[in-house]
Specification:
globular, mainly alpha, disordered N terminus
C-alpha cells in the first residue's frame, strides 16, 4: 500500500467530463467559458456531468492563471 495516495482524491479534469459526455475537450472548454456556439442541450449535458463528477471550476481557473503567467 502506498501511503502517499491514501485519502487523496484525483482532481476532475475537462478531459474526464468530455469522456463522460462523449464530446471533445474543446466543447467542454467552450461550455465552461460560456461560448454561445455550443447547442443548449449539449451545454446542459456538460454542466450536469461536471456537477456530477465534482468539477471545481474555481480550482481549474486558478491553475489556468498560474500556467498563463509562466508563458
Amino acid at each position: 500500500m502506498n501511503p502517499v495516495k491514501i485519502n487523496k482524491q484525483r482532481i476532475v479534469t475537462q478531459r474526464d467530463i468530455a469522456d463522460a459526455c462523449g464530446v471533445h475537450q474543446t466543447t467542454i472548454s467552450m461550455v465552461l467559458r460560456g461560448d454561445s456556439r455550443v447547442a443548449p442541450e449539449t451545454a446542459e449535458r456538460v454542466i450536469a456531468a461536471a456537477n456530477k463528477l465534482g468539477y471545481d471550476i474555481a480550482t481549474q481557473d486558478a491553475a489556468r492563471r498560474l500556467i498563463q503567467r509562466r508563458h
